[in-house]
Amino acid sequence: MRAMIVKEFRQLRRDRRTLALLIMLPVLLLIVFGYAASFNVTRIPTAVVGPESQVVVARLRAPFAVTEIDPSAGRGYAVSRLRDGHAAVAFVTGPAGLQVLLDGSQLFSANAARTALGEMARQPGTETSARVEVLFNPQLKTSAIMVPGLGGLILLFIGTMITSLGVVRERQAGTLEQLAVMPFRPRDVFIGKIAPYFLVAMIDLCVVLAIGVALFGVPFRGSVAALAAGSLLYLFVTLGIGVLISTVSQNQGQAIQLAMMTTLPQILLSGLIFPLASMAAGVRWISYLLPLRYFTEISRGIMLRGESIAALWQSFALLALLGVVVVTLATLRFRRDLAPAPRHRVRRLQAEAAAPAGSA
User: The whole model's pTM is what?
Assistant: First the structure.
């Protein structure tokens, strides 16, 4: 028994990736659930418009954080600010009284705003006749904000885990060595490897969104072409991550471990489940490196608020930048894997390829 225990410890020590996963994963989960796993929104971007703007601003308290004041604007301008994601709440003053517009696509911010408005109404000297209207997700349904993000989660799973396993399988079977002696450029092999997964992922995305719209009543107010463009960019990144993982993995076990290390932070820190506004600043910066954050913003913005590409240009641009970086690294690593093999190995592989089937 002692010999077996010593053997397992030595084997675990040699497998550095598994050892790193066993140590880093609990630490990662502790940090995420300690600093990011919260539904409490403490800061709500707020726009105040209309002639009585300054009066309203003087009465507002946390969690309302006034980011814009425009005494000359009206309801139409306030709606546009909510639609473009510049604010989650808008106070509109005018002859008809005070109106509060909430962005229902930001579910947790909207719920926090309703709670805060109720507390304000109970304070002495505070305006109590404000009319509250929820836009873009009037019923504040959880499914309306989850379905667009779940489409991105499925693309992440296929692009990262399934792609990495498929390419590593080629290495374990020795197929990559055969590709090295064939007249293929690394770019051709790279595109050939990801094309099937690309097609499957797009089909899955269409199925998920169609079921979400038909079964759960999730609205689709924006452009199908805009969502397709965002999906292509996002899938471009996830497939690149999958290929990059495969180039640094020697077997499928290592590929699964690395895929988990890249997938878990995206699920928890992208705003898919926990609102970004509730995360500590020291953890929130990680989300800027996660492609699922930008796809979630794009899919929710297009489907729920009907935003255009122009309004979401920052998410599109950053997603494209991530795609260029990831795919460039993956291609360079893949090129190294397909570097010309030594001559004796080339001759051996060519002989094996030319040998009759069944020959010894």
Answer: 0.80
